[in-house]
Amino acid sequence: MTTEPDILSSALQAQIAQAIADAGGWIGFDRFMELALYTPGLGYYANDSTKFGAMPDSGSDFVTAPELSPVFGQTLANQVREALDVTQTDEVWEFGAGSGALAGQLLGSLGERVRRYTIVDLSGSLRARQQVALSAYGDRVVWADRLPDTFQGVVVGNEVLDAMPVQLLARHGGAGTGVWHERGVAFENGAFVWADRPTALRPPVEPEGPQDYLTETHAQGEGFLRTLAQRLTRGAAFLIDYGFGESEYYHPQRHMGTVMCHRGHLADSDPLADVGLKDITAHVNFTAMALAAQDAGLNVLGYTTQAHFLINSGLLSNLELLAQAERAQAAKLMMEHEMGELFKVLALGVGEPWEPMGFARGDRSHRL
Question: Residue 38, Cα to own-chain centre: how many angstroms?
Fold first, then answer.
């Protein structure tokens, strides 16, 4: 029996196949990822499927920190409040607000300190959910399709950079002698297939070792940071995501790349299957993000693990207020084998540098 998800996926496959044909039979993976995630009405983030939730039985595909525990947003609010005070601003801008859970946690904690909370989200279906979830805050919450030419305030982005399309680079052969190709997507016999083309593109460092090597570069993420730098005239930004600094990102042992898919709280490594029905992500190269921001005029105020950031920002005192079961769930935010170590926080600022509370101990900026 054909189900509604099957129909959606088939329709999206047909649109992407047509885009490939229009492009001469091949598109880069960044274009494929963009179409798979953001094609209006059909892409993963543009359709009506449930995405965010703590358990698979909710119909969700993955959990983010705000769904895991409200103390995530309540603790982040301490840092946001400090940033609002230091920068003398009264607006918060959130990119990719998901279910609206983080916005609700921040607004509930910050109260009247936030005059306006602007959500920038490309997904019409997610925006509709956010509007319902945040209706109690009235016209203090507004939505935007894009950034204005100039703006002020504190920017928050939780798991935003990992959803930005990446280019795939494949080296056939070892360091120094291997030939680099851009890995893209073709459509053959009714299915998407990988197709490599020689390219002048290179990762920022040459991965060591004699093995073939697959990795990503993050032109769209870097472009986002440059745009942010050009338009943020006063304020700060806190970007939270899973990823590494450059030396870890292009380590010889990471030769299979970092692109992953998520569906029903299970992970797989095949983004060409079930398009529109699962998330596609790549880990973040935080060195590239920091350099792009810095070159465009922002200051790097700090870089550390989520565990250090949340503990520095008051997580432990928030945990004490929870019942035992809720405390165990919230502890995953800082556990090394859960979110604590893999997730990092990058802080950026305009104007005179200052040290945000979240980086008072354990700052790893020197490792970017």
Answer: 14
